Amino acid sequence: MTGYDLRHHGDAEVEPGLLDLAVNVRAAAPPPWLRGRLERALDRLGAYPDPTMATRAAATRHARDTGEVLLTAGGAEAFVLLARVLRPRHAVCVHPSFTEPEAALRAAGHDVDRLVLQPPYVLDPAAVPDDADLVVVGNPTNPTGVVHERLAELCRPGRVVVVDEAFADAVPGEPHTLAGRGELPGLVVVRSLTKTWALAGLRVGYLLAAPDLVARLRAAQPLWAVSTLALVALETCLAPGPVHAAQTQARALADERTRLAAQLQAVGVQVAGGSRAPFLLCRVPGRPDVRDALRSRRIAVRRGDTFPGLTAEHWRTAVRDSSTSAQLLDALTDVLVATR
Question: pTM above 0.90?
Answer without folding.
Answer: yes
